[in-house]
Amino acid sequence: VQLQESGPGLVKPSQTLSRTCTVAGGAITTSRSSWSWLRQTPGKGLEWIGYIRASGSTYYNPSLTSRTSISRDTSKNQFTLQLSSVTPEDTAVYYCATPPPEYLYWGQGTQVTVSS
Length: 116
Fold this sequence. Notes:
The chain is an all-beta fold and 116 residues long. It has no helices and 11 strands.
């Protein structure tokens, strides 16, 4: 399974951060599969943001749930993270990964900076 992330690397405060993960070598609708977003900062370490299941149901980190949305496009085998009302504290390296909790497969990781 290969995961490829895409999206802007710079977002302004109060705007919405958007990241898309394109999956190859496995369908995001495969029964019982889950597809996750995580991020890493020097201060907090690795933080789980949320995931979307093959069924389409989603689960979010309680500390981020009010600002987080994970959706998917099954025709493109992609899933997308949207994090709204960002602040500089959301600056991090963002990853898509699967399957939880072992995360055997990772995207390349992309630095996203929140700055005006």
